């Protein structure tokens, strides 16, 4: 009996020692790794050890989920929450080129603290002098956090920054663009956010007037906007390029196809037989399209020479400035369509 008691006590002692060791180890791990060096594996944004140490207290601050605001619809409550902050000078890092251009248009450029290193953001003579925080597709988290912004306007390319910035108590806002109407709405939202509502209303009204002018005399043709020849990728209905086509009176044959840039088969394209073909970015010229698929030569657009290149970089930006380009596209088509 005595031996049994000794064995049982030995077992209890071993279990207790193991638990104590595990707890001590966990405590040490928690202490040594108070902040992760790699803050977002999805976006691969990293901080060096010095920066991590300096920002340790902010990293542990409690961040409310409401700090990430996607202003895809009229969210007046979210705007009112942050408008007092954004009205101050140098409070926003703006990673979205379209939002940068809008802020200048409505006279709210003083709220900009820094932007991505990117060419041709209007007005170039002014934006070229602003502080840069990495590139459009690869923003520098360390620089952004070091500038201590109150709000960061992100894009779909930098959405991976959201969680990282929230760890430091920095709010993020995203203004999606998939139509001309969404550009109009974003003008008003940024106006309310920065205390420039009256200016924004004027800019939005001017933009909307031009949209209505373009809609007034539709082209009345069918068309498709090809993004890539191999594979055959086009812009679907819920995209800005598609809305541009519809606005000038060209029915997008891929409007009802699921996806922003769906892959079409040749039979679908030939069956729809569009009057006009537009291309850009990953397609250099008409010959490249024919090389990708010889069957394209039977399309009306190819036979009649109604194949046109459009500068997509400007169209995809989603800035109010594209409306003049859209107007020019329509005027050119009137002269060229056969």
UniProtKB/TrEMBL annotation:
<dbReference type="GO" id="GO:0071281">
    <property type="term" value="P:cellular response to iron ion"/>
</dbReference>
<dbReference type="InterPro" id="IPR050902">
    <property type="entry name" value="ABC_Transporter_SBP"/>
</dbReference>
<feature type="signal peptide">
    <location>
        <begin position="1"/>
        <end position="21"/>
    </location>
</feature>
<feature type="domain" description="Fe/B12 periplasmic-binding">
    <location>
        <begin position="91"/>
        <end position="338"/>
    </location>
</feature>
<dbReference type="InterPro" id="IPR002491">
    <property type="entry name" value="ABC_transptr_periplasmic_BD"/>
</dbReference>
<protein>
    <submittedName>
        <fullName>ABC transporter substrate-binding protein</fullName>
    </submittedName>
</protein>
<dbReference type="Pfam" id="PF01497">
    <property type="entry name" value="Peripla_BP_2"/>
</dbReference>
<keyword id="KW-0732">Signal</keyword>
